[in-house]
Amino acid sequence: MTTSKEGSKRPKSSRAKKIITVTKVSKRYQMGEIQVQALNDVSLVIRKGQIVSIVGPSGSGKTTLLNLIGALDYVDSGTISINGTKLATMSDKELSLLRRDTIGYVFQNFNLLEEINAERNIEMPLILANVDKEERLNRVNELLESVELLERRSHKPEQLSGGEQQRVAIARALANEPEIILADEPTGNLDSNTGKKILHLLIDLSEKNKKTLIFVTHDINLASLAQRQLIMNDGTIEEDILSS
After folding, report:
1. In degrees, to the nearest 5, what angle opens at C-alpha 80 toward C-alphas 175 and 18?
2. Under 8 Å CB-to-CB from 183, ≥6 apart: which residues?
3. Distance between CA 129 and CA 42 in Å, rounded?
4. What is the three-class DSSP state of 150?
5. Could you tell me which of 157, 67, 143, 167 has the C-alpha nearest to residue 112?
6. Is 106 helix (H, G, I), strand (E, B) or coil?
7. DSSP label at 16?
8. Domain assignment of residue 155, given as a range
9. Is residue 2 part of a domain?
10. Quick one: angle between helices 162-174 and 118-128, nearest 10?
């Protein structure tokens, strides 16, 4: 069932450019002797600049869908296109560049490098993209300021709170100015108050920088902060709701 409510907190033109197209995608996993149908014939279109949440119970297919869109896994059937190019037609090198330059990732477990400080964690994607040193430092300063961590730049992850670590992770995801931000349970390891602040920050930065944001959550209240909610169950999208 697809539901659409009139209006939106942050309305986007229906003619906005399609940035992600998912067409009849299915994905199965082998768990011992059991085959699990993680996704079943899923189709959707996400337009440039949309803020989209994916919500549903454990095992509903949320993270699988996110990983497939992010080129972290491969479909069994169907197609996924980013900016009109099918992922299945791209070489390993092209997929690597897509993951580096077009998509930013935010994970539940932060995935920061423990041996280096906040500044260097944010700088790493820029180093991998061969950005020159002066430009890297300027960009890192901008990002630290945007997540309000200038005074914590020299701290390693173990010296930062969970909320601060996730702020570093968000800054790192934005480092190469990707068009798409994918966030898998970005508040999952945070208390409810900190989690809500982090999600507001992620949404605000995505809107300010005109990014397409897709985030996965179990929390229907956090999901409702998005312009659009995809409610999943048993590997399918049961509802597609525009927030009022």
Report:
1. 70
2. 105, 106, 107, 173, 202, 213, 214, 215, 216
3. 33
4. helix
5. 157
6. strand
7. S
8. 18-242
9. no
10. 20
Q: Is the CB of residue 9 less than 8 Å from the CB of residue 229? A: no
Q: What's the distance, Cα to Cα, between the start and end of the chain in Å?
A: 18
How do residues 7-64 score in pLDDT, each as one tens digit?
334 444 456 799 999 999 999 998 888 888 999 999 999 999 999 999 999 889 999 9
* pLDDT tier at 206, thresholds 50, 70, 90: very high
DSSP secondary-structure letter at 188? Answer: T
Q: With contact defined as beta carbons under 8 Å apart, do 108 and 188 qualify?
A: yes
Q: What is the CATH number of the domain that holds 43?
A: 3.40.50.300
Give the number of domains in the chain.
Answer: 1
**CA 51, CA 41: separation in Å to the nearest integer?**
23
φ/ψ region of 13 (left if φ > 0, alpha if ψ in -120 to 50, else beta) reads beta
Q: Is the dihedral of CA 7, 8, 11, 12 positive or negative?
A: negative
Q: Which two tokens stand for residue 5?
A: 């409510």
Alpha carbon of residue 27 to chain centroid:
19
**Domain membership flag for residue 214:** yes
Q: Which amino acid is at 213?
A: L
- The answer to whether the Cα torsion of 34, 35, 36, 37 is positive or negative is negative
Distance of alpha carbon 204 from alpha carbon 119, whole angstroms = 21
pTM equals 0.90
Total residues belonging to the chain: 244
Pairwise CA distance, residues 114 & 174, whole Å: 19
- The distance from CA 24 to its chain's CA centroid, rounded to whole angstroms, is 21
